[in-house]
Amino acid sequence: xxxxxxxxxxxxxxxxxxxGLADGVTTNPSLLAKTGRPYAEVLREICAAIDGPVSAEVxxxxxxxxxxxxxxxxxxxxxxxxxxxxxxxxxxATKALSARGIRVNVTLVFSPLQGLAAAKCGxxxxxxxxxxxxxxxxxxxxxxEQLVRILRNYAYPSQVLVAxxxxxxxxxxxxxxxxxxxxVPFNVMRQxxxxxxxxxxxxxxxxxxxxxxxxx
Length: 216
Ligand code: E4P
Fold this sequence. Notes:
eight-stranded parallel barrel, alpha/beta, single chain, binds erythose-4-phosphate, TIM Barrel, 216 residues
């Protein structure tokens, strides 16, 4: 399974890359706004920090303008994957950009049929949002399971990129669905690696080793 870092924070991206766990990055307008820096500049730096796809979202709402923005974003760096929202205009833009060889990540997917539509329009990635559905009392993973099954049934090449993950358990459940990618916030990536028994075990091993006064 691939892990993308769900962040526009360059230091988080660099740290996750240094751990060997980052296969790509996803950003969105809210994450970019948090940096307080120019969009293109941040994007260029993130793309230079990682050898993998970096999703950058359009903010226009009409297909023609989305395509224009998408082409501009794609010119920033070959790692850029253009993110389009799952609207009718977003699907039109997805089809047009994909036809021009520009990879598209269709975002804000909340139902399996929306995801199927994105795959039909040539999306490279389809991003179902789990956490935001769970927030409303729905079962986000039931939707992801259906989407994974549907895309497999018809052998669509689109990859399911599970988004809006809020905890290590969410990442585990994403992996169980067979989705190709999980985009993980940096703090969740760190939490996934921590276990109290690992910490206690290491402390005991080292205490016993130091008693021997030996060196390796
Ligand atoms: C990633 O592509 C999405 O924009 C992100 O996972 C959304 O996460 P949130 O629902 O926690 O904002």
